[in-house]
Amino acid sequence: MKNILYAIIFGIVAWQLQGCAAGAAGAAGGGTTVVIDRRTTGTIVDDQLIEFKAIDAFHKDTELWKKSHINVTSYNNIVLLSGEIPEEGLKRRAVALARGIEKVRQVHDETALAAPSSLLARSSDTWITSKLKTSLIHAKAVTAIRVKIVTERGIVYLLGLVNRAEAEAATELARKISGVQRVVKLFEYRD
Question: How confident is the model at residue 35 (pLDDT cuts 50, 70, 90)?
Answer without folding.
Answer: low
